[in-house]
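In the lab's daily routine, each protein ends up as an entry in a very long ledger. A line of letters takes care of the sequence, but it says nothing directly about the fold. The three-dimensional part falls to structure tokens, numbers that each stand for a local backbone shape. The outcome of that step, for a single protein, is printed below.
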Amino acid sequence: MTMMTAMGLNFTAQMAGALMGVTANSLDASADKSAAAKENDATAATVVPLRVVKKGRAVQADDLKRISGVGPKLEKMLKSMGVNSFAAIANWDDAEMRRIDEMLGLDNRVIRDNWAGQAKALLEG
């Protein structure tokens, strides 16, 4: 074998080795991406969605100040809590009235003034 042939074979062997290395690295990267994708899929499957609020007809906001004991400030606080109508207040039971009273810091005014009863009367006309 001549020197050029030996060098050519050596160069060819080096190139083949380099090509094998590149291919192996590429396969490793693909495997890493595949594992990461599987992990992301597993994570996505375990995520619990937030409670979805269904949109319906818009509820007409009532003038809550018509309830004795509710002024502009309390009306604004109630509406910020999502209480916009007499119907919502009319459906409160004693436990809900106590809870709302405590949230608003009203020292039992919601029950004492019977907001639920007043709201029912306002709904009836």
Remarks:
- The chain has six helices and no strands.
